[in-house]
Amino acid sequence: MREQLRHLRLSVIGAMSVACVLATTSVSHAVTLTAPVATTTGTYQGLMNFQELPGDPTSGVNAFFGIRYGQAPVGTLRWKPPQAPNPGQGSIVAGTPGHTCVQGRPTDSEDCLFLNVYTPSNANPHSRLPVFIWIHGGALVNGAGSDYDPSVMVADNNIIVVTINYRLGSFGFLAASVLAATQPNAFQNVGDAGNYGFMDQQFAMAWVQDNIRAFGGDPDAVTIGGESAGGLSVSSQLASTNTFRGLTGRDLFRGAIIESGAYMYHDVPSLATYQTLSNTFAQQDANAFCGGSLTLACLQGLTAAQVFANERDFGGFGIAPNFGTKILPRDLHTAFSIGQFNHVPVLQGTNANEGRLFEPSFFPAALIFPGVSAANIVAAGGPASFGLQVPNGLCATPPFAGAPANGGVAHRPFGT
Question: Alpha carbon of 259 to those of 5, 53, 340, 392: distances in Å?
Fold first, then answer.
């Protein structure tokens, strides 16, 4: 246990920083390729001594972008458990992130089951370094592993970080009746539907178990972490007791870090409840594109744009996981209350002032910041930063007077 906690402490340093650093993943300077690394899904050469931006002091970090861990979940594989891809032929230069999963970006594609590996440049297959798998947030409807740059975390702490994509929105979580599994499989009992994004996360974790040693990582020292929907995902993986060892015969992770992930602790819907919402959503697509006939063939035959078009009208819980299935047998509150979860060391907390990011959607700007222009707010770094510096209707005491929140400190480290 002491060794597990040591690996956990090494990982948390970066968890607090990786959540707030966006990556451009654009390399504009000359690069040297790493030696080839053989994996179960191909042989890859990464970018040696990768630097995110010209002049970035970070050095000694190798980055492997866009490693495929699953087949494209398209056609008859849409709304099915992830499948292993055919290994690539020859050596593939892993210099560009894979497509983002469907969410309305120009880089979107259903062919999005990719991950990125960052290693110290001196790592070798005998290094046995701790590994941190980052699960991005975004309400289960947006985000990508390549949005985050953990280079500093890797360089400063001599660890390996893996950032992953997973199916989002209705592609990742729709649970319509016509999607129900007709045969049991590694992730599903007969009748299960939804939670495909969680299956992707576990499939990526299994890839790490099978391959991370070749990059210098220790498969027995893997910590998973995430923020917001990523934190919800981590909680769900803790509660995923049936499939924790099903893919590899080994524990998928040995520690977990949850940042601001408790927002559905009491509210994850059952399969039956979520299936009703999913059926309504799916019927909208059937009415629009399939002459009203709701079938699996109809839904799998739609374009990604057609499926995505009505997603904002999902209703109810919105895009969410569901419990009562093989991959998530219990709701989170029950699982943790009765001790039916994967028992590993856990760090859990809430990022300071995170809720202020959502103020503009909850309250009229004129109420929060009277007499302030949008330009003033943007110049201060957005509503969260502005609200910490200027008396306003939510944080100042009394309202619109007194000292600003936190004494005018505009930015605080994540996790504090």
Answer: 17, 27, 21, 27
Asked if residue 186 lies in contact with residue 246, where contact means CB atoms within 8 angstroms, the answer is yes
d(CA 147, CA 18): 10
Domain with CATH 3.40.50.1820 in the chain: 2-266+326-349
Q: Which residues contact 180 (CB under 8 A, 6 or more apart)?
A: 190, 191, 192, 193
- Residue 95: what are its φ and ψ, rounded to 5°? -110, 0
Nearest Cα residue to 275 out of 145, 201, 180, 376: 180
Determine the residue type at 398.
P
C-alpha 91/C-alpha 95 separation (Å) is 12
pLDDT band, very low/low/confident/very high, at 377 (cuts 50, 70, 90):
confident
Angstrom distances, CA of residue 152 to CA of 14, 51, 122, 137, 209? 8, 10, 15, 20, 24
pTM greater than the 0.70 cutoff: yes
User: pLDDT grade, residue 362 (50/70/90)?
Assistant: low
Q: Whole-angstrom Cα distance, residue 382 to residue 406?
A: 16
How many residues are listed for the chain in this entry? Answer: 416
Amino acid at 351: N
Task: Name the CATH topology of 2-266+326-349.
Answer: Rossmann fold (3.40.50)
What pLDDT digit, counting tens, does each position of 81-105 carry? 999 998 877 889 999 999 999 999 9
Helices (H), 192-331: 196-215, 229-238, 271-289, 296-301, 304-309
